[in-house]
Amino acid sequence: MLNLYFNNTVLCLFKSTEIGMGLTGFGVFFLFFGMMLFFDKALLAIGNILFVSGLSFVIGLERTFRFFFQRHKVKATSFFLGGVFVVLIGWPIIGVILEIYGFFLLFRGFFPVAVGFIRRVPVLGSLLSLPGISTLVDKIGESNTMV
Length: 147
Prior knowledge:
Helix content: over 70%
Largest sheet: 2 strands, antiparallel
Strand order of the largest sheet: 1-2
Pfam family, one: Got1
Number of helices: 8
Family: Belongs to the GOT1 family.
Oligomer: single chain
Low-confidence stretches: none
Main location: Golgi
Shape: globular
Order of helices and strands: EEHHHHHHHH
Distance between the termini: 29 Å
Radius of gyration: 17 Å
InterPro entries: Got1, Vesicle_transpt_Got1/SFT2
Structural class: mainly alpha
Protein name: Golgi transport 1Bb
């Protein structure tokens, strides 16, 4: 168990959470790197496997299944996991498009929270208040869908 101190508060991270954060980070890296290298099949497949397994390590298997297989998230889960499957069978561009659409459907309830947090960050908050970006961010930030 790792103890992190932040503003006089102890944040305890268990080994499975630490491993999950590492796996998720490597998964995002491999996904990004695979897209930068013109949708390399192998890197995207490795990134998908690491991301999904890391997510299950961070929040636990039961909570991962409850998150993905809720009745109102069936469409989003189908697109996301279908995209992972399509990448694994060898069609990376179509698979990534399906994954991105499923990702936005799955995590759209978290976007207002993320936008609110980013608006408080000094440099990023000023970037989000630029004229062209602010209208888009306002639409994303005022979404009130349930998680």
